[in-house]
Amino acid sequence: MKHRDCLIIDDEQRFANMLAKRLSLRGCECEVSYKGLDALNLIARKRFALVLLDLHLPDIYGVEVLARIKEISPKTPVVIITGHGSEEDRKICIQQGAHAFMNKPVGIEDLIGIWTQVREMSA
């Protein structure tokens, strides 16, 4: 199974691509998906050290994507990154196994810290 550092799932293409570029400049190899169902197909074929997931996707709600990721790859850490998340969303995501819940805009150093922590846990 092919391994990547990070999968970014976000329908805001400009944001997702910029985030992937900024993370890659710091050594984190990223793949981007703009739809939840496409991302689930990727996760079924590849292993990712970390998934960054938006809640509001055009084809499927992010909480459902989170639940399916946890079925396919239970140990993969998923960080929710959203611009429209509520406290209720945060509670649900954490209960369903999200590693963290962050509101946009997110600091790149915070994400690098999570990526580094995840890499150390899996080493």
Attribute tags:
123 residues; alpha/beta; Rossmann fold; five-stranded parallel β-sheet; 5 helices; globular
Question: Overview of this structure, please?
Answer:
The structure is a single chain. This protein is an alpha/beta fold and 123 residues long. It has a single domain, classed as Response regulator (Rossmann fold, 3-Layer(aba) Sandwich). 46% of the residues lie in helices and 24% in strands. It has five helices and five strands; from the N terminus they run βαβαβαβαβα. It has helices at 13-24, 36-45, 62-72, 87-95, 108-122; strands spanning 2-9, 30-33, 46-53, 78-82, 100-103. Strands 2-1-3-4-5 form a five-stranded parallel β-sheet, sandwiched between helices. α2 packs parallel to α3. The two termini are 17 Å apart. The mean pLDDT is 93.
Number of helices: 5
Distance between the termini: 17 Å
Into which percent range does the helicity of residues fall? 40-55%
Rg value = 13 Å
Q: Which regions are unreliable across 5 or more consecutive residues at pLDDT < 50? A: none
- Proper CATH architecture: 3-Layer(aba) Sandwich
Give the strand order, joined by hyphens, for the main sheet: 2-1-3-4-5
Element-level helix/strand string? EHEHEHEHEH
Count of beta strands: 5
Largest sheet: 5 strands, parallel
Arithmetic mean pLDDT = 93
Q: Which fold name fills CATH's third level, the topology? A: Rossmann fold
Number of domains: 1
